[in-house]
Automatic annotation (TrEMBL), chain A:
The keyword Flavoprotein applies. This is Electron transfer flavoprotein subunit alpha. GO terms for molecular function: electron transfer activity; flavin adenine dinucleotide binding. It comes from mine drainage metagenome. It holds the Pfam family ETF. Belongs to the ETF alpha-subunit/FixB family. GO terms for biological process: fatty acid beta-oxidation using acyl-CoA dehydrogenase. The keyword Zinc does not apply.
Amino acid sequence: MSTILVIAEHRRNELRPVSLELIAAAYGLKKSVDDKVLVAVIGSQAESFVPALSVAGVDEVIVVQTPIADFDPDIFESAVSALITAKNPAVVLLPHSVDALGYAATLASKAGYGYATDVFIAEYQGDELVATRGGYNQKVNVEVDFPGKSTVVLTLRTSVFKVLEGAANPSVSSFDLPVVQSRSQNKEFIEPGGANDVDITAVDFIVSIGRGIGEETNVEQFRELAETAGATLCCSRPIADAGWLPKSRQVGQSGKVVGSCKLYVALGISGSIQHMAGMKHVPTIIAVNTDPGASIFTIAKYGIVADIFEMEEELKNQLAA
Amino acid sequence: MNVLNMKRGKACRKPFDMGMPAKATDLVRLAIKAGDPYCAAAVHNIATGRDKRRLEALMFDKRRNTLLLARWEHTPASVLEAIANSSAGNGDSGVVIRLDKNPNATAKALSQLYVGQADVRQLNSDFTVLIAQHLHSPVSVLASIVQLSEDEQSLKAVSRNPAASAEVLSVMLERMANSKIIGVLYKNLAENPSTSTELLDFIYAKGDEYVRAAVIGHARCSQAVIDESVSDKDVKIMRKLAVNARVSSETLVNLAASHDVAVRCGVASNVASPEVLVMRLLLDDSCLVRRAIAARLDLTAASINALANDKDSWVRQWLARNPRIPRKVLERLSVDFEVDVRRAVARNTCCPVGLLKALAKDQSAWVRSAVAYQHKSPKVVMEALATDNNIDVLSGVANNPHTPQMILQDLAASPELDIRRGVILNKYATRKTLLPLLEDPYYLHRLMLVGSVRLKGKDKWSLRDDPDFQVRFMVFRWMASRLCESAVR
């Protein structure tokens, strides 16, 4: 029997959705029915997250009470380290997030655990755990194994592991936080830019505009179109650089990867490598461009060589009808 | 954290002595010495004789390099022509297909490919299709495809290509008159800007309602066809007529009574619509019609007042962007409860400075960001917005020509790459402000700096052995162009 330990993540008293993705990944790593998935939640209000974490696949929720509400790398490192010592898990799963990256490497390095970051496939090949991550700027997939390591710490990429459906009734236990001297102090929480805006990494239908729209005044008609169609309006870098749409709507290498998108309509986007890095994985890409040689057509499922303004007008007419 | 402490990575090749070259030949030899195919591509068009052959050997000795250069969007035209002329361009289908797809391929390169690929074309019509749709394809090649090709996809591609002349399109229509793809050809020709008025007249008489609608929307459509189509009751045709400025007032009045919203929207936005008709459409039930009116540049005071009180926020938003709006109306819209309306006021090119100062204190960061990007915003507003903590606001401050250099220098050290890029995009950022950004960890920023007019030659040349191949290419290309210009002078 082996144990898989998941460290749930929360911020500002809200459980982050990635916690449920980690549980799904942990469930996928079970080699037998005897294997256990333990979910630890660390924080001053840790107990309040127990109902949300009582989902399919979880055998036990461990509550670790801390004196402060906000994330602190020293406290988390100390708590997770003590949990590993006590529970002896074969695998520890953390989100690939700014919080986890604040302590995961130190945790693994100090105790000599196996360690891989930004993992998007975690599986057993025989008895050997293999983690797959990107390499060379996501151009190749790298398989990492951990010979001789009894415990492996993995940070998992978000929006990759499909959340399991259904509730469960796991046992709940508490775990005492070891004495720890924190070296940092939280002064103020500042919402990152665009935090009030929609999270484009979580939406499934995107209409995206590029240089082809020409002028700023033209942005409005595409915003109208997106709103009418029930889509989220996003853009390529030049549009955000000009301040025509918020940075939080920028897709690509210097913007965001639209991890949950299922339908991406690219209007007037030529398809630079930097932009495609943020959306090429989307299952259905519809590209509209006047240039039949535009790179975007190489990854589009449906390509339309047409004027985007005519398309916009026709789509609006169709939606209004 | 000062992000510029995170220097760019080390050069991927051994450094070699490269002072600023004084002559084109010196630069070419430095590129050869560097052994880098991208540097070689950057100077190819200024090289001659033996040096040119050495550069080509450097670029094309490995098939992988040839494939990369044939596909790369920045590969100079002279290099693409050299590939087309090389053995790879004549026999390697992988190379040929990349050249055909490359938007930078010149008419000369495409001609060479078309002539040189006769055997391959017979085996694979994809090559012909790519040439037939390429915007740089010479008329002679397109004419040859139209006269000789039996491939329907290639003929369809020519019919869509604006590079095809009216004569070529006419010949195609004649040749394909009885083919089964004639309907598609009619549609493509009706949308092709090169199609002549005579051909459009002919297509209008033959085509279905979609084709007729496309003909009416064509810039070269004859007045006779427009007049004839006025009696057509098909909604697709009515929509095209409604936006056409050559339609009479009487027709527009009739179209304004249409049950179709898109037709009424067309009339509402048509510059030829008389004022009385626009006033009547102000009362239209559809907010889409009123939105179309709000974007007009010839609004009367009465229309503006009616639109400023419209319950649809998009109407007020379109109005707030309208540069012809009087100050009093803008003031009223600047306190609208909808964020996007207030933002539209801040983005209005005629927004008074007093209003911008007030909007700079708006509770919404998206409104403050609009003020920050507004080129009319004065220095004092920029100084106030520089203390904001929102990334969109700070990016706007970084972009703005009125931002003091001291602030720009602080922003150039921001951990947010979007903000640093804003400084790079600011045409008024001085050399002193930009110099630290030469060490920016993001390659795109260093790439952009090669094009800066504020930096000195020696600053840009310092990027010659940059770890990123695109930056090295840009530096060598910039230097090649500079040496050519000085040689001409």
